[in-house]
Amino acid sequence: DALVEVSGLTKRYGETVAVDGVDLTVLAGEVYGFLGPNGAGKTTTLRILTGLIAPTSGRVRVLGGRPGESAVLGRTGSMIESPAFYPYLSGLDNLRLLAEYAGVERRRIDEVLELVDLAERAKDRFSTYSLGMKQRLGVAAALLKDPELVILDEPTNGLDPAGMRGMRRLIRELGSGGRTVLLSSHLLGEVQQICDRVGIINAGRMVAEHNVDELRGEQELVV
Ligand code: ADP
Ligand code: ADP
């Protein structure tokens, strides 16, 4: 059962071909790693999948619908840019605002805070959080609507080793809890550690797709 089906996806910015004929399938229940160096086209692809920008051409189905359709948005949680929260509000109050907007029950806020291991710091100001905590709050926000599909763009980027470990553990927990996760990364070791399947993208093109246990020896493909 495919939750994401992309074929021939292309996105151009003037002369720049950011995404060049990408085919990609994400199956229900898998943690899929979208692996490639900086500038490969990962963010552009994920922004198209979440409906933030339109493709130049190609076919894109997410949860059986078009990206950005309200029925699809309601079943997808994403963290694409570094999450923007109000610095002087607590993590809890930031999530309350989002929950209210999304029509999510208060009870769910406690659940997601627990999931991302922020329950104990929930009442502290966002501005006092480490980068890892900020990113985990971003994932908490993405999980508020209990989405079937979670899309995370470089969720460990910029994190220190402890922050990375926390985020990777969280993503593995999402996967083993049966959620479908699509994440991007430029770290081979990271996708080997946390993903079931990996698609490698370079200069806008899909270079290869592997089950994670087939990935050894592919180091030379990745910067
Ligand atoms: P990645 O996420 O893999 O680092 P991106 O999708 O951000 O790659 O970028 C792919 C290519 O498209 C890069 O060359 C980038 O400079 C270019 N690009 C991305 N967004 C824009 C934009 N809004 N306008 C022009 N070029 C862009
Ligand atoms: P990422 O780190 O995900 O690759 P960037 O920092 O490259 O993201 O891009 C941040 C923003 O700038 C995005 O909105 C992206 O579309 C835009 N952008 C990226 N590259 C270019 C570019 N060459 N020209 C114009 N906008 C760009």
TrEMBL record:
<keyword id="KW-0547">Nucleotide-binding</keyword>
<keyword id="KW-0813">Transport</keyword>
<feature type="domain" description="ABC transporter">
    <location>
        <begin position="4"/>
        <end position="223"/>
    </location>
</feature>
<protein>
    <submittedName>
        <fullName>ABC-2 type transport system ATP-binding protein</fullName>
    </submittedName>
</protein>
<dbReference type="GO" id="GO:0016887">
    <property type="term" value="F:ATP hydrolysis activity"/>
</dbReference>
<dbReference type="GO" id="GO:0005524">
    <property type="term" value="F:ATP binding"/>
</dbReference>
<comment type="similarity">
    <text>Belongs to the ABC transporter superfamily.</text>
</comment>
<keyword id="KW-0067">ATP-binding</keyword>
